[in-house]
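Q: Hi! First time doing this. I have a protein sequence and I read that you can turn it into a structure. Is that right? Here it is:
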Amino acid sequence: MEENRNENRQIKFRVSDDEFERLEQMAKNVQMSVPSFAKKKAQGARMRPPKIDREGAFEMARELRAIGNNVNQISRRANQGHTIPAEELKEVQKELQAIWQQFNSAIQK
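A: Yes, that's right. Below is the predicted 3D structure, encoded as structure tokens:
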């Protein structure tokens, strides 16, 4: 047993192949491992599948990082006393609106 674990008790139980396949599918739907899923269910947790798939979430995070980099560069230039063209600010706003719409459409599914 690992010394750094908070849980020091282990519960083992057997399931049929069909039961395991059902558990595996339900766990996959909420992007969890079977043991984690079974533990949460045993604790009474109600789990719902994520509204945004994993790849979609990674893509949105990548886009947000890029927008954040742009905003940082703009703020750095502004703090140095440079004028920021309105078109540049509008472009960042347009990018933010696009990602917001993408996020909203993903969670409406």
